[in-house]
Amino acid sequence: MAASSDGTGTAQRKAESLGLTFPVLCDERGRLMDALGLRHKKGGPDRSDVFYATLFLVDERGAVKWKHATDNVGARATPGEILAAAAAAR
Fold first, then answer.
1. Which CATH number does the domain housing residue 23 bear?
2. Chain mean pLDDT for the chain
3. Distance (Å, rounded) from C-alpha 75 to C-alpha 36?
4. Which of these, 9, 24, 30, 51, has the minimum number of CB atoms within 10 Å of its CB?
5. Torsion, Cα of 75, 77, 78, 81 (10° steps)
6. What is the rounded CA–CA span in Å between residue 82 and residue 88?
7. How far is CA 68 from CA 29, 47, 51, 76, in A?
8. Phi, psi of 24 (to 5 degrees)
C-alpha cells in the first residue's frame, strides 16, 4: 500500500504511470501523515508543509520491522536496502 498527499486524480495518474498494482491511499489533509509524525512544517520550497518521503516494512501482524525516512525528496531507499531489510525481518 502507498499513501499520497496528492488528490485522487493526481495520485491515480501517478500510480498508473508507475505501473503500481497495489492500492494508493489519498491523504490530502495529511491525517495519516500527521499520525505517523511525517509532516515537515514549512519544508517546501515555498515554505509550505510537506511530508517526509518514508517507507515502512510491516509484517503480517502489523508490526513495523523497518522504517526509512528522509527530509530530502530526492533521497530514497535503494532496492538493495529494501531487500536487505526484508531479509533481516524474516
1. 3.40.30.10
2. 90
3. 19
4. 9
5. 150
6. 10
7. 22, 24, 13, 8
8. -120, 115
Grid coordinates belonging to 32: 495519516
Q: What is the DSSP string of 11-60?
A: HHHHHHHHT--S-EEE-TT-HHHHHTT-EETT-STTS--EE-EEEEEE-T
Instruction: Write out the residue range of the structural domain in which residue 19 sits.
Output: 2-88
C-alpha cell at 1: 500500500
Tens of pLDDT, residue by residue over 18-76, are 999 999 999 999 999 999 998 988 888 899 988 888 999 998 999 999 999 887 767 88
Neighbours of 33 (CB within 10 A): 20
End-to-end CA separation in angstroms for the chain = 20
Residue 1 pLDDT: 85
